[in-house]
Amino acid sequence: DSSKRMKGISDESKICLVGYSHSYHLIYAFWANKLGHRFIWAPAKYPSELSTEFFEQYYHIRNCTTFVIGVGQWPAGWPGGG
User: How far apart are CA 8 and CA 40, in angstroms?
Assistant: First the structure.
């Protein structure tokens, strides 16, 4: 069982994948492999969307104790922001 490999993470804690396109597909893959209950998608396209309040919301409300941040695709593809 692949969920047994997630050692060191309590049943209550979650891993937040911060980003947009790639993060969303990772979350989908985790759910497909029955690991989705440990992961939360925290959508953000640009680094400017990340703030203390952003992380506090996911920490306090969604119980994320680990954040994996990947917000490089959108700025690289659309440097002007859109």
Answer: 17
